[in-house]
Amino acid sequence: MFLLESNVRKLLKYILITTIILLFVLLVVESYGKYQEYLNIKKMQKNLNYTYNNYLYKVANQRTDIGEFFDFLTDNNFYLIEFNYSLANGLSAKVATFMEPTQKIKSKYSISEVTKINMGSKYYVVLEIKEQGVNP
Question: For the chain, percent helix, then strand, then coil, each to nearest 5?
């Protein structure tokens, strides 16, 4: 009877050790899976943060560009007729002003004459102003 009890205890001991080892392996595998999930979330969070900061940078640049454009229009006494802005085509506007025959306008924008009407000593001019270097 002692011999029989001892064999059953041995068998139970092996089953218990096997179960503990199996549970430990499952714990390690699950921990590794959770760690990988944590790293993926951290990476996705970093990418979203980068995208958001890039968006803020672009918006700040757009505000600066539009501000400079309107400053240019007011500095040259242009009267705004039409204004367009898109990311693909950039800034463009049709403006009107009174100019002397020899007056030239220097700017970083592309300026083309749409209409010119002689008003005696000055001309009433309608100009189209576009941002240079924008790829459509």
Answer: 55, 25, 20
Beta bridge partners of 110: 130
| For residue 43, pLDDT beyond 80 | yes
Are both 25 and 55 inside the same structural domain?
yes
Number of structural domains (the chain) is 2
Determine the length of the chain: 136
Identity at 10, one-letter amino acid code: K
- What domain range is 66 assigned to? 1-76
| Pair (24, 68) in one structural domain | yes
Q: What pLDDT shows up at residue 95?
A: 94
CA 74 to each of CA 62, 69, 87: distance values in angstroms, whole numbers, following the listed order: 18, 9, 23
This prediction's pTM:
0.65
Q: Partners of 91 in the beta sheet? A: 85
